[in-house]
Amino acid sequence: TQLLEQSPQFLSIQEGENLTVYCNSSSVFSSLQWYRQEPGEGPVLLVTVVTGGEVKKLKRLTFQFGDARKDSSLHITAAQPGDTGLYLCAGEGGTSYGKLTFGQGTILTVHP
Amino acid sequence: DTGVSQDPRHKITKRGQNVTFRCDPISEHNRLYWYRQTLGQGPEFLTYFQNEAQLEKSRLLSDRFSAERPKGSFSTLEIQRTEQGDSAMYLCASSLEFRYYGYTFGSGTRLTVV
Questions:
Q1: Does B45 contact A104 at a Cβ distance shorter than 8 Å?
Q2: Are strands B109-113 and B10-13 parallel, antiparallel or unpaired?
Q3: Is the Cβ–Cβ distance between B94 and B103 less than 8 Å?
Q4: Closest CA to A52 of A31, A63, A68
Q5: How far is Cα B49 from Cα B63, in angstroms, rounded to an integer?
Q6: What is the pLDDT of residues A70-90, one digit of tens each?
Q7: Region B45-70: what's the mean pLDDT?
Q8: In sequence order, what are the residues at sequence separation of 6 or more whose Cβ sits closer than 8 angstroms to the Cβ of residue A59?
Q9: What pLDDT, on a 0 to 100 scale, did the predictor assign at position B1?
């Protein structure tokens, strides 16, 4: 089974700060997705990256897929309290063909 | 289409009882997935369907768990002889077959076994 390791597991910051969440694996994925989940709800898709080295921006969020397609990062600029939630990376491909394998998640808390 | 619907939202059951959850996917989506999630962790894969065919079931899944998707529409997940360790959020998601499409998740069913 392909594993995805996310770091840090917990992140507590003040409004306006920048942060980066990392997602690493020893295996290659065909695609990697990032989701955000609020308590009591299902995860919501933020972005899909498929090409090694790809960078996608979504307002204050920047996502990068590693050149070897084994790792990814999520960078948030000027975090806001509304960014608070559980951030999940998920990969598909290889032994995870046809389904997503999720990392354990990063719990982000942004204080006003 | 109102997205992926799961019923019930919450279920409290006594140990040893059977429970069944239902998932109604987005109608255009031919793939349906079940995941289990414990507090503060990422979702763990259970099983998935393409139309009515169950294509994969996690090796970690006990024989007490069974899922069906008759006629390729809604799906049910049954847990027999529930144990306290089954307490978790059970998430259903659907997607189009094309691998780069993301999943649309339902709000989940929170199961508590007492």
A1: no
A2: parallel
A3: yes
A4: A68
A5: 18
A6: 999 999 999 999 999 999 999
A7: 92
A8: none
A9: 56
User: In the predicted model, is pLDDT for residue B86 greater than 90?
Assistant: yes
Mutate to test the interface with B, among A99, A102, A106, A108 (most CBs of B within 10 A): A99
Tokens representing residue A45 in the block: 């898709």
What are the backbone angles phi and psi of residue B71, rounded to the nearest 5°? 65, 15
What pLDDT is attached to residue A2? 63
Predicted pLDDT of residue B40: 83
Rounded to whole angstroms, the Cα distance separating B18 from B79 reads 6
Residue B103 to residue B60: CA distance in whole angstroms? 22
* Record: contact B42-A102, CB cut-off 8 A: yes
Among A40, A45, A88, the residue with its CB nearest the CB of B42 is A88
How many other C-beta atoms can be found within 10 angstroms of the C-beta atom of residue B66?
A: 16
B9 vs chain A: nearest CA distance in angstroms? 9
